[in-house]
């Protein structure tokens, strides 16, 4: 890992912004106002409307008449989010590319900061940063740059394996288009974890960079994307991540012994997270039988999971002895992890 001083963007760069849209046309005007406000960047915006029934496609066409940087692709029938992503990504012409959901935002200057890092470090294939979540009106974004971090691809993969998590929300990522062409588009077989799969594949071939300090995107939280806060969503997310890492080991990096050595770390991390979810379920007084699928997942993922305290307690039918202390500890643990990821990106 290298911490380097951030330097300004030298010369002009072209960034293609792919905006998949389904019934989110009302968010497009503000998105475009911010996207085009990028010093030193020639912006190409490709809005892909997935046959929205609410008139979002017409709104996109009207905005394209006002912004010369915008072009619109319209699906005649709904093709789903992965195909919508890929149709837009296949059409890009810029040196760099970002995928920005229509309800999210990229602050003024964020693309310039990412392009500066990519231009200064030609071995970096992907740049990200901090992306705070919001609901309602977006907050004023922080634009102060502290420094840059550069990881080798393997080093970044090692950190990902140790936590088996996706550190990235998605709208804050800017990729080198050459890297995207090399590693390929979103995998239709991974509807719940296609972004994580793309980041992992990129790190197999390219270094990874991060702009530290500013808000590189704003991630909107509303009812349509809060499914992972539910118990069923947690289990779905765990299964999706396990499948994604399995593909890394068995398909994308099957001949790399250094990557294969990371597999036990992934198994342990996923099983630990399932154990924490069991503890949270106990704190919420869920019936023990409803928590059994999490235990089954942990045992199936990590051979040492049956020895964990959460699994033993669940199998014996015992409840938590100190629920207040346990909840405090989990909240503290979550806060410390958030602080680390906020500052360091891993």
Automatic annotation (TrEMBL):
GO terms for molecular function: transferase activity. Keywords: Transferase. The keyword Cell membrane does not apply. The keyword Transferase applies. InterPro entries: Glyco_trans_2-like, Glycosyltransf_2, Nucleotide-diphossugar_trans. Pfam families: Glycos_transf_2. SUPFAM superfamilies: Nucleotide-diphospho-sugar transferases. Residues 16-153 form the Glycosyltransferase 2-like domain. PANTHER family: GLYCOSYLTRANSFERASE, GLYCOSYLTRANSFERASE 2-LIKE DOMAIN-CONTAINING PROTEIN. This is Glycosyl transferase family 2.
């Amino acid at each position: 890992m290298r911490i380097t001083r951030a330097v300004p963007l030298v010369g002009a760069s072209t960034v293609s912004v792919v905006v998949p849209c389904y019934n989110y046309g009302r968010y497009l005007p503000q998105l475009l106002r911010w996207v085009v406000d990028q010093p030193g960047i020639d912006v190409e915006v490709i809005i892909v409307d997935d046959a929205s029934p609410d008139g979002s496609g017409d709104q996109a066409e009207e905005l394209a008449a006002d912004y010369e940087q915008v072009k619109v692709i319209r699906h005649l029938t709904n093709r789903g989010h992965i195909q919508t992503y890929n149709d837009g990504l296949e059409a890009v012409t810029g040196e760099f590319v970002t995928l920005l959901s229509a309800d999210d935002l990229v602050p003024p200057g964020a693309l310039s900061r990412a392009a500066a890092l990519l231009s200064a470090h030609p071995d970096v294939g992907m740049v990200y940063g901090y992306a705070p979540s919001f609901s309602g009106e977006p907050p004023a974004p922080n634009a102060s740059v502290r420094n840059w971090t550069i990881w080798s691809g393997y080093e970044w993969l090692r950190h990902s394996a140790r936590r088996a998590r996706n550190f990235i929300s998605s709208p804050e990522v800017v990729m080198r288009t050459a890297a995207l062409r090399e590693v390929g588009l979103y995998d239709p077989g991974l509807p719940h974890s296609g972004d994580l799969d793309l980041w992992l594949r990129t790190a197999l071939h390219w270094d990874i960079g991060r702009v530290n300090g500013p808000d590189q995107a704003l991630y909107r939280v509303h009812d349509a994307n809060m499914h992972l806060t539910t118990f069923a969503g947690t289990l779905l997310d765990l299964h999706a991540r396990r499948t994604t890492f399995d593909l890394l080991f068995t398909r994308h990096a099957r001949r790399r012994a250094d990557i294969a050595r990371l597999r036990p770390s992934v198994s342990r991390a996923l099983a630990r997270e399932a154990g924490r979810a069991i503890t949270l379920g106990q704190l919420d007084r869920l019936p023990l039988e409803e928590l059994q699928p999490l235990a089954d997942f942990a045992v199936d993922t990590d051979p040492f999971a049956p020895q964990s305290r959460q699994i033993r307690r669940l199998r014996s039918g015992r409840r938590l002895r100190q629920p207040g202390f346990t909840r405090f500890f989990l909240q503290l643990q979550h806060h410390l992890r958030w602080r680390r990821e906020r500052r360091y990106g891993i």
